[in-house]
Amino acid sequence: MPMPIPRQQAPALRVPTVSGSTFELSSDKPERLSLVGFYRGLHCPICATYLKELERLTPAFAERGVSTIAISSDDATRAQAMAEKIGASQLRIGYGLPLEVARNWGLYLSSGRGKTSIGIEEPALFSEPGVFLVRPDHSIYYLSVQSMPFVRPSFAEMLGALDFVIKNDYPARGEYTGAV
Prior knowledge:
This protein is of the alpha/beta class. The radius of gyration is 16 Å and the shape is globular. The relative contact order is 0.23. It has a single domain, classed as 3-Layer(aba) Sandwich (Glutaredoxin). The two termini are 21 Å apart. Strand 8 and strand 9 form a beta hairpin. The strands form three sheets. A five-stranded mixed sheet has the order 5-4-3-8-9. The protein has four helices and nine strands. The protein has helices at residues 45-63, 76-86, 99-104, 155-168, and strands spanning 14-16, 22-24, 33-38, 66-71, 92-94, 109-111, 125-127, 130-134, 140-145.
Protein backbone atom coordinates (compact mmCIF):
# COMPACT_ATOMS: atom_id res chain seq x y z
CA MET A 1 0.00 0.00 0.00
CA PRO A 2 1.62 3.29 -1.06
CA MET A 3 1.70 5.95 1.63
CA PRO A 4 1.44 9.61 0.66
CA ILE A 5 4.60 11.59 1.51
CA PRO A 6 4.76 15.15 2.90
CA ARG A 7 5.86 17.75 0.34
CA GLN A 8 4.73 15.48 -2.51
CA GLN A 9 1.47 15.89 -4.43
CA ALA A 10 -1.69 14.60 -2.80
CA PRO A 11 -3.60 11.90 -4.68
CA ALA A 12 -6.56 13.02 -6.77
CA LEU A 13 -9.76 13.43 -4.77
CA ARG A 14 -13.24 14.16 -6.09
CA VAL A 15 -16.46 13.33 -4.21
CA PRO A 16 -20.05 14.59 -4.09
CA THR A 17 -21.15 16.45 -0.96
CA VAL A 18 -24.43 16.36 0.93
CA SER A 19 -25.01 20.00 -0.05
CA GLY A 20 -25.33 18.88 -3.68
CA SER A 21 -21.98 20.22 -4.86
CA THR A 22 -18.81 18.34 -5.75
CA PHE A 23 -15.62 18.62 -3.75
CA GLU A 24 -12.49 18.37 -5.85
CA LEU A 25 -9.21 18.86 -4.03
CA SER A 26 -7.57 20.34 -7.12
CA SER A 27 -10.23 23.09 -7.13
CA ASP A 28 -10.20 23.79 -3.36
CA LYS A 29 -8.39 27.10 -2.92
CA PRO A 30 -7.98 27.86 0.78
CA GLU A 31 -5.68 30.66 1.90
CA ARG A 32 -3.33 28.21 3.65
CA LEU A 33 -4.49 24.58 3.81
CA SER A 34 -7.30 22.13 3.12
CA LEU A 35 -8.08 19.86 6.07
CA VAL A 36 -9.34 16.58 4.64
CA GLY A 37 -10.73 14.29 7.32
CA PHE A 38 -11.60 10.76 6.23
CA TYR A 39 -14.06 9.01 8.55
CA ARG A 40 -15.38 5.45 8.76
CA GLY A 41 -19.07 6.17 8.19
CA LEU A 42 -22.45 6.55 9.88
CA HIS A 43 -21.98 3.25 11.72
CA CYS A 44 -19.12 4.72 13.80
CA PRO A 45 -20.14 6.51 17.03
CA ILE A 46 -16.56 7.71 17.59
CA CYS A 47 -16.64 9.34 14.15
CA ALA A 48 -19.78 11.27 15.07
CA THR A 49 -18.17 12.65 18.22
CA TYR A 50 -14.98 13.50 16.31
CA LEU A 51 -16.86 15.22 13.49
CA LYS A 52 -18.99 17.22 15.95
CA GLU A 53 -15.71 18.66 17.24
CA LEU A 54 -14.52 19.47 13.73
CA GLU A 55 -17.87 21.11 12.96
CA ARG A 56 -17.53 23.20 16.14
CA LEU A 57 -13.95 24.22 15.28
CA THR A 58 -14.43 24.78 11.53
CA PRO A 59 -14.79 28.59 12.07
CA ALA A 60 -11.48 28.62 14.00
CA PHE A 61 -9.81 26.72 11.16
CA ALA A 62 -11.32 29.19 8.67
CA GLU A 63 -9.84 32.09 10.67
CA ARG A 64 -6.43 30.49 10.02
CA GLY A 65 -7.06 30.09 6.30
CA VAL A 66 -7.92 26.38 6.50
CA SER A 67 -10.92 24.85 4.70
CA THR A 68 -12.47 21.67 6.11
CA ILE A 69 -14.20 18.62 4.69
CA ALA A 70 -15.08 15.19 6.15
CA ILE A 71 -15.34 12.30 3.68
CA SER A 72 -16.45 8.66 3.87
CA SER A 73 -17.28 5.85 1.49
CA ASP A 74 -20.90 5.95 2.72
CA ASP A 75 -23.69 6.55 0.21
CA ALA A 76 -25.64 9.82 0.05
CA THR A 77 -28.36 8.68 2.49
CA ARG A 78 -25.91 7.62 5.18
CA ALA A 79 -23.76 10.74 4.67
CA GLN A 80 -26.84 12.97 5.02
CA ALA A 81 -27.78 11.12 8.22
CA MET A 82 -24.27 11.77 9.61
CA ALA A 83 -24.48 15.45 8.64
CA GLU A 84 -27.78 15.71 10.53
CA LYS A 85 -26.43 13.74 13.49
CA ILE A 86 -23.48 16.11 13.96
CA GLY A 87 -25.42 19.26 13.09
CA ALA A 88 -23.14 20.04 10.15
CA SER A 89 -23.72 23.60 9.01
CA GLN A 90 -20.16 24.71 8.25
CA LEU A 91 -18.23 21.45 7.81
CA ARG A 92 -18.57 20.04 4.31
CA ILE A 93 -19.55 16.36 4.22
CA GLY A 94 -18.40 14.33 1.23
CA TYR A 95 -19.45 10.80 0.43
CA GLY A 96 -18.98 7.97 -2.03
CA LEU A 97 -15.21 7.76 -1.57
CA PRO A 98 -14.06 4.92 -3.85
CA LEU A 99 -12.03 2.41 -1.87
CA GLU A 100 -9.29 2.51 -4.52
CA VAL A 101 -8.96 6.24 -3.84
CA ALA A 102 -8.92 5.57 -0.08
CA ARG A 103 -5.98 3.22 -0.70
CA ASN A 104 -4.21 5.89 -2.78
CA TRP A 105 -4.42 8.13 0.29
CA GLY A 106 -2.82 5.41 2.42
CA LEU A 107 -5.99 4.67 4.37
CA TYR A 108 -6.49 1.26 5.93
CA LEU A 109 -9.53 -0.75 4.87
CA SER A 110 -11.70 -2.92 7.12
CA SER A 111 -14.32 -5.60 6.50
CA GLY A 112 -17.76 -5.08 7.99
CA ARG A 113 -18.63 -7.12 11.07
CA GLY A 114 -22.36 -6.58 11.40
CA LYS A 115 -24.07 -3.98 13.54
CA THR A 116 -22.05 -1.62 15.72
CA SER A 117 -22.76 -0.63 19.32
CA ILE A 118 -25.29 1.94 18.07
CA GLY A 119 -27.16 -0.66 15.99
CA ILE A 120 -26.07 0.49 12.54
CA GLU A 121 -24.78 -2.04 10.02
CA GLU A 122 -21.17 -1.64 8.91
CA PRO A 123 -20.61 -1.60 5.14
CA ALA A 124 -19.02 -4.71 3.61
CA LEU A 125 -15.77 -2.71 3.22
CA PHE A 126 -14.91 0.79 4.44
CA SER A 127 -11.87 2.93 5.13
CA GLU A 128 -10.44 3.70 8.53
CA PRO A 129 -9.79 7.32 9.62
CA GLY A 130 -7.17 9.72 8.35
CA VAL A 131 -6.53 13.44 8.65
CA PHE A 132 -4.54 15.38 6.05
CA LEU A 133 -3.53 19.00 5.68
CA VAL A 134 -2.90 19.85 2.02
CA ARG A 135 -1.36 23.10 0.76
CA PRO A 136 -3.01 25.13 -2.02
CA ASP A 137 -0.34 23.74 -4.43
CA HIS A 138 -1.79 20.29 -3.52
CA SER A 139 1.32 19.10 -1.72
CA ILE A 140 0.77 17.22 1.51
CA TYR A 141 1.75 19.20 4.60
CA TYR A 142 0.60 16.82 7.37
CA LEU A 143 -0.93 13.39 7.54
CA SER A 144 -2.11 10.96 10.17
CA VAL A 145 -3.80 7.65 9.40
CA GLN A 146 -5.25 5.15 11.86
CA SER A 147 -5.93 1.44 11.58
CA MET A 148 -8.55 1.69 14.35
CA PRO A 149 -11.30 4.19 15.18
CA PHE A 150 -9.57 5.15 18.44
CA VAL A 151 -6.97 7.79 19.41
CA ARG A 152 -7.20 10.35 16.61
CA PRO A 153 -5.39 13.70 16.30
CA SER A 154 -6.99 16.43 18.40
CA PHE A 155 -8.45 19.25 16.32
CA ALA A 156 -7.99 21.68 19.23
CA GLU A 157 -4.29 20.77 19.45
CA MET A 158 -4.04 21.08 15.67
CA LEU A 159 -5.28 24.68 15.89
CA GLY A 160 -2.52 25.50 18.38
CA ALA A 161 0.03 23.81 16.14
CA LEU A 162 -1.24 25.79 13.15
CA ASP A 163 -0.66 29.04 15.05
CA PHE A 164 2.99 27.97 15.52
CA VAL A 165 3.27 26.78 11.90
CA ILE A 166 1.91 30.08 10.55
CA LYS A 167 4.02 32.27 12.84
CA ASN A 168 7.26 30.38 12.11
CA ASP A 169 6.65 29.30 8.49
CA TYR A 170 7.32 25.77 9.72
CA PRO A 171 8.07 23.29 6.91
CA ALA A 172 6.32 19.98 6.29
CA ARG A 173 8.26 17.17 7.94
CA GLY A 174 8.59 13.45 7.16
CA GLU A 175 9.52 14.11 3.54
CA TYR A 176 12.81 12.17 3.37
CA THR A 177 12.58 9.06 1.19
CA GLY A 178 16.28 8.43 0.44
CA ALA A 179 18.62 5.71 1.62
CA VAL A 180 19.22 5.25 5.34
